[in-house]
Amino acid sequence: MQRTKVLVIGSLNSDLVVQTPRVPDEGETIMATSFRRCFGGKGANQAVAAVRQGAQTIMAGRVGADSFGEEQVASLRREGIDTKYIVVDEEQVSGVASILIDARGNNRIMVVAGANGAVSPRDIEALVPVMAECSCVVIQLEIPLDAALAAIRKANAQGAKVILDPAPAQPLPLSIYPHITVITPNALEAELLAGVPVNDLVSAKEAAQILLDRGVLAVVITLGSQGVYGLTLAGEFHLPAYEVNVVDTVAAGDTFTGALAALIGSGRSLMYAAEYANAAAALAVTRRGAQLSIPTEDEVRQFLGR
To answer: H/E element holding 101?
Structure first.
C-alpha cells in the first residue's frame, strides 16, 4: 500500500508577538504597536502547513503540563492533525517564542525551549512504527540535536523520505547527510552548513553542491527576495520570488517546508512541490501570525491559477 502520511517531529511553542515600528537600541525603551499570543514552533507550524495542503499529518513532540501546551494541542486537533504522539511533560513548561516584528515585517525571535528541550532519542525510538507508515518525515533543530539526528537515521531506515529544515542553524556531523532526502536551509543556514558565504544564486549553487557532495539527495535553499534555488544529482532549478506585499515573515520558511513535504508525500516531483511551496510561502508573508498566516490548499491553487 502506498504511504501518504506526513510525520512532523519537532517543536511546539506559544508565540508572544510584539509589533513595533523599529527595533529598540541597547538600553532604549520604545512603545510597541500591538501584542498578540498565538500558536507556533517550527514543528507545529510545519504540521499545520502540511495538513492544510491536504496531507494526513501526524505531530510528535513535547509540551508542558500547562495551559499553553493544552491549548496548543487542542488547536492542532482542530486542524485535523493526529496528536497522539505529543507527550505531556509534567516536569517542563511548554515552549515559548518571543517574536519582535518591525514595520517592514522583518522578525527577530528568541525561543525558550521548555519541553521541546526534553525530546530524547528514547522518544524517537517510540516513533519507529509510525515512521514505517509515513511517506515523509519532517525534522527541524528546535529539539535537541541528538534526538533530531536519531529521528533522521530512524526515518531513513524505515524507508521514509527525510526532509530536514536545519533551523536554528548549527553544524551537523558529516555522517548524517546521506540519511537526508531533502534539506531546506535559508541563505544563512546554508552558509553555516557549507562554510561559504551565500548571498546570490551563484553562491547558493556553490553551497548546495557542497551539501549534495556530502550525500544529501536534494538541496532546496530559500533565498527570500531572490526566490528558491534547488540542486539534485539530476540538475538544478531556480524559482523567482513572487512580488507580494510583505506584512510578516514569521513562519514563511515553515510554510514552505510543510507544503513541500505534503506535495512530496503525495508523490509529486521535487520541482512541482517546490513551485507549490514557493507560492504557499508567498501567501503566508502577506498575513500576520505564524499558523494564522498559513494558507490552505484551495488558496494556494487559486493563487497559482490551477
So the answer is: strand 95-101
User: What is the greatest pairwise CA distance in the chain?
Assistant: 60
Query: Are 103 and 127 contacting, i.e. CB atoms less than 8 angstroms apart?
Result: no
CATH of the domain at 253: 3.40.1190.20
Sequence-distant (6+) residues with CB within 8 A of 198 are 187, 188, 190, 191, 204, 206, 207, 221, 223
Rounded distance between C-alpha atoms, residue 213 and residue 232, angstroms: 10
* Cα 229 to Cα 239: distance, rounded to the nearest angstrom: 7
Q: Read off the pLDDT band of 2 (50, 70, 90).
A: low
Active site residue 89: no
User: Does residue 243 lie within any of the structural domains?
Assistant: yes
pLDDT in tens, 152-194: 999 999 999 999 999 999 999 999 999 999 999 999 999 999 9
Which one from 15, 248, 254, 298 is the annotated catalytic residue? 254
| CA 153 and chain centroid, separation | 19
For the stretch 189-237, pLDDT in tens is 999 999 999 999 999 999 999 999 999 999 999 999 999 999 999 999 9
Residue range(s) defining the domain that contains residue 240: 5-12+41-65+80-88+119-304
